[in-house]
Specification:
Largest sheet: 4 strands, antiparallel
Number of helices: 2
Low-confidence stretches: none
Distance between the termini: 29 Å
Order of helices and strands: HEEEEH
Strand order of the largest sheet: 1-2-3-4
Radius of gyration: 13 Å
Shape: flat
């Protein structure tokens, strides 16, 4: 499966019954993002204040790179 197909598969996944969660480090100020797991280790991310807007979706590799950038202080 190539990157384009993997990304298309993530966006084809129905999030109607998704279980969304916030970081336990959230300050409760209402400026949070929520995530839910997707098949193949992917992640969907949405604005908790605007959950009706489309969620962004990341492959497992993209999400891992993002997390590592945060941990390393690059982001």
């Amino acid at each position: 499966m190539n990157d384009i197909t993997a990304k298309a598969d993530l966006y084809a996944h129905d999030l109607t019954d998704a279980v969304w969660r916030k970081s336990p480090h959230s300050a409760g100020e209402g400026q949070c993002v929520e995530i839910t797991d997707l098949p193949g280790g992917g992640i969907a991310l949405r604005d908790s204040r605007n959950p009706h807007l489309p969620a962004l979706r990341y492959t497992a590799e993209e999400w891992s790179a993002f997390r590592q950038g945060v941990i390393d202080g690059a982001l």
